[in-house]
Every structure is written in structure tokens, then in C-alpha cells.
Amino acid sequence: MSGHRLLPTTEQDKIDIFKSCGVSSMEDLLIGIPKEVRLKSILSIGDGLSEIEIKRKISQILKNSRNKKSSLSFLGAGVYDHFCPAAINQLTLRGEFLTSYTPYQPEFSQGTLQALFEYQSMVSEIFGMEISNASHYDGSTSMAEAALMALRMKQNKKRILVSSGVHPEYVEVLKTYLTNLGVEVSLIPVNEKGTTSLSALKSLLADDVALVIAQSPNFMGCIEDMQEMSDLSHSKGSLFSANVTEPLSLALLKTPGEYDCDIATGEGQSFGLPQSFGGPYVGLFTTRLENVRQMPGRLCGETVDALGRKSFTLTLSTREQHIRREKATSNICTNQNLCALWASIWLALVGKEGFVELAEQNLAKSEYAKSELTKTGKAKIRYSNTNTFNEFVLELNTSSSEFIKKCVENNLAPGVSLQRFFPDDKNGLLIAVTEKKSREDIDLFVDLLKRFG
């Protein structure tokens, strides 16, 4: 009876599960969940309830819980709270798109292939680059794949320089990808303005550097001098790659193509994808046409069929499943098709003018927040002489962790404590202000800073 699929887990089942997982108790099994967010007692929902009664009870419990929809969030650090029109859910979640596997066969999948083609076209235009592939897992893996691509293009070089302004978690993913390849990864420090030190970059550049990676706006929200870094890299024979965690910024900033970037990667979550506790997202990957055969992933192209009719097909696919293993550029095995479709619909609905308007709103609202927060006298803007887009660091007079705790108790997430990434940085708070924040929202934040800052 214990194996019956409709019976709940028996005591023997639990013992078997613990044994399989190498733990001895439920407490050991849940060790990854912080104690402060766990229930302190058994969840009391009653015995023998019907489905309707259970749903009603759970709904009532959820009403008393604090969740993202009921909280005001200024969280960013690579994941942003952007507006998503209701039409996207209606279109993206249609049954024909929610498949367990991406349909590629051109005779059956013209709609899917055209969607990928449109996605690639829009990403290329936004980045100002000639070629975009059909997406990666997320921004961090796209950046790591850019490093692998550079090493293929510069086979006699075994060093990669990464700005300390790149998202710290992206850097960790990069190091993991390169662990067993004998490649040295060196960090370029940032200066007092919060941007990459150009003098340090000059001193680190040498003939053995295959690639220089920088991010703008960087992890601290500061806008980098990407043109100067690109020129310096090329002057030493190195490739230059841009990482863009907030691609909406490209509506107002120079695109990677405009500063002669070789490879440009990014995170597509900003294109309407829900934050969803960290994923799934979609990695953006672009390059120049001359580099296309070293590009990982898939490329969907437009062609004509035997009757001369316009059609779409996978033009280039360089993973080992499609070609000989020794010729493969990457073993990446997904193109995040549903997420790419989601991003494409968002971009199509927003349109060119809407894309720029959203970016302008992000900039204007974050500047208003910076001004009002500093007027309280309880904090100052770190890197105040450097331009930012929609994210900036607030230097609090108090501990950022303590301030966050007070704000959360008042149903507001004020930002990300930089102590999470840099243990000695106790007062730095990384704040993101998107188009979804109203003047009243920002004023509420300001009021909490006056009370708890």
C-alpha cells in the first residue's frame, strides 16, 4: 500500500528518502532553508477537508503572507522589476508554445522559427551588433560562452581580464567555466568613481590577453567608459566584450556596436520576464558577422523553400549534437525558446518609441529617488560624480542589513545589501528604480529612511 500513488508519504518512505539523501532527519534535509523563514509549528489546516475547503483555507493563509505582489520592491542587482503587459501572458502561455521540447523541424515549425528570427533581429538592433544567436540560459552563462569563444579566436592567448564592476556572480560562473582550461582570470579594480580603472587596465594588458570583459551600467549602477576600454583592448591585440545586465539602458546609452565591441552579451530578463525568484531567464549573445562561425548556440535564418516561398530554418548550429564533437563550439543544449518568445512579444508590444520612453522613465525616477533620499541627511550617494541609469549605491549612516530589516517589517524591500557580496561593505545599499515606481512609492521609501536611517 505504501507504494500507492494516492497515499501520502509513510514513515518508512521518509526513512528511505533520508537514507538516499545521506541525511538522518527532516532538520538535516532542510538545512539549506534559513531558520527565520521556516514555520515555527506544524501548519494547521484541519483534517479531512474537501478540495474547495483546502483552497479556501490556503487562500486565506496566503492573504496573511508577505509576497512580492503585496510588497514594494527596489531590488535589482541584475534582476529588474519592469512592466509586463497582460497580453504577454495570454499569448506566450498558449498551448502550442508550451511544449516539452523546442520544435525545430522547419516543415512543422515555421512559427517557432520565425519567432526566433524576429528575436535575433531585435536583439541585434538593440545591441547595434551584426549577429545575435537564439539565446542562452542567462546572462552569466552568455558571458562565460563569450570567454570560450574569445579563446577559440585567440588560441595562443591564455589570459582574460574582467572588470571588478562586472556582477560578482557572473564572475564566479566565468571562473567555473574556465576551471580546467588552464586560463588565468584577472580582475581589473574599480576606482574611486566606481568605474573600471583605466590605468590598471593599461598595466594589465599584455600580448597574452585574449579578452577584456566590462559591464555597463556596472554592478554598482555606474556607466563605464566602454569606448576607451574597447580602444585600449584592441591596441594590444585583445578582444573586447561588453556585458549588459540591464539592456533597457541601451535605449539611451551607446550600443556595443557603436564602441566597436567584438562580442556583446547580456541578460534578457528586463524584456518583461518575471523576476520569479531567479529564473528562468534568457541569455543574450551578439557578435560581428566575421565571427559567426565561432559563435555558440543556434542561428535561425530566413530563406526560400523549393517553391520560392519565404521560409525560416536553423542556419547554423555548432553544438556536438549537430556536428562532430571536436568541431563543436559549445555543448549548450537549450535556446530558452519560451523565454526568448516572451522577450520578443514584450519588445514588439512596447515598440521602439515605448522602449525609449521606458528607459527615460527609469532614468528620471531614479534621479528623483537619489535627490529625495539624500535630502533626508540619513544617507549619501556613493559615486555621486558618476552617471547612473536606474540603479545606484546609497551609503547609509547605519547598517544596511538593519535598515533592510526595518523596511521589510513595513512591507518594503529597499534594495540589496552590498555586504552580501563584499563582507566589509556594511553600509552600502544597491537600489533599483524602474518605471513601475511612482512618486508616492519613492516618497514612502524616503519616509522610511527618515525613520530608520
TrEMBL record:
GO terms for biological process: glycine decarboxylation via glycine cleavage system; nucleoside metabolic process. It comes from the Bacteria. Gene3D superfamilies: Aspartate Aminotransferase, domain 1, Type I PLP-dependent aspartate aminotransferase-like (Major domain). One of its GO terms (molecular function) is glycine dehydrogenase (decarboxylating) activity. Coiled coil: none annotated. The glycine cleavage system catalyzes the degradation of glycine. The P protein binds the alpha-amino group of glycine through its pyridoxal phosphate cofactor; CO(2) is released and the remaining methylamine moiety is then transferred to the lipoamide cofactor of the H protein. HAMAP family: GcvPA. This is Probable glycine dehydrogenase (decarboxylating) subunit 1. The gene is gcvPA.
